[in-house]
Amino acid sequence: MKNIDWSTLGFHYTEPDYIVRSACHDGKWEEPYATQDKYLHLHVSATCLQYGQEAFEGLKAFRGVDGKIRIFRWRDNAKRMAKSAEGLFMKAVPEELFGRAIRLALKKNIDFVPPYGTGATLYFRPLLIGTTPRLGVGPGHDFEFIIIPSPIGPYYPGKFHCTTFIVNRYVDRAAPYGTGQFKVGGNYASSFRATEAAHAMGMDCIFLDARYHTYIDECSAANFIGIKKPSAISHQNSEIEYLTPRSSAILPSITNDSLMTLARERGYKVTRRRIRLEELAQMSEAAACGTACVISPIDQVIDSERNKIYSFGAEPGPVLTELYRALQDIQYGRAEDKHGWCEVFSI
Ligand code: PLP
Ligand code: COI
Fold first, then answer.
1. Which residue's C-alpha comes closest to atom 5 of ligand 1?
2. Is 290 touching ligand 2 by the criterion CB < 6 Å?
3. What is the pLDDT of residues 80-102, one digit of tens each?
């Protein structure tokens, strides 16, 4: 195992030994191969550079309590990347090839899988770019698929603690029928003006729907979850509601999908619909969720333009804490993987 201070790792790039690459020409993908060279020899007019023909993914491998390494839901990332490829007129990476590339990246960087109990994981960043040289506006027909592994720690500093979010109305992340549902670099570049301003204040951003600036879309790099529950101390699980936005402009989060399944299993009511920002006042807990941040509870949402603060308490609430534990128990092999979400890696 590499000599890394695993428990102090943040969500930052640590150079792995190998990346994995596969090129596509004439509609055919080559077999993925590992290389130590982290640089591309890319034409200056490649469509990824000129017209943003690029998509990416994010998934993790966990070292479990039993010492086994589990890759979480990679097939869903492969499927989502295929959708992003379709959205940007790129050739989809075949699912099995995606899987072989991830396994090869893991095998070649096995010493970068953090030990159990450190809170760190091996993150994979699959990347798909258009490489055809082109100046005329339009898509290319050559592509490169790359897996960049890196050990990472928590996305938000601290293991499971609250982050403050600020409502943003001056930058739209993605249009209603634009590229928000795809995981493409342009969505992140377009949000930088808002996210960097929020980060400078020690917060992160909540984006509203771009048409009305009324409904919650998502957080900058995560979906939004809210919990509504009766104020009475004694209540049934069926009275607890897990709410998450429905919008054509947000990324279908695999973490959110997993949490919805776990919430339903516990008898909670799971609702996906448009959520007005003001509804935050009726929620007892709120969080951002995604591969990088898992569940990141929110203590406050600040709407400075309307002079409003929505508060959810300084500590993570009980429902989200329970779901966080349930998800991590599966990822770390502490609980049965009933849904077949994890692939146990064997060399
Ligand atoms: N929304 C955005 C904009 C993201 O960048 C991410 C991260 O991947 C998510 C949501 C969460 O998706 P997932 O749970 O699949 O990682
Ligand atoms: C992830 O959660 O995997 C992401 O890709 C979000 C962000 C770091 C881009």
1. 221
2. yes
3. 999 999 999 999 999 999 999 99
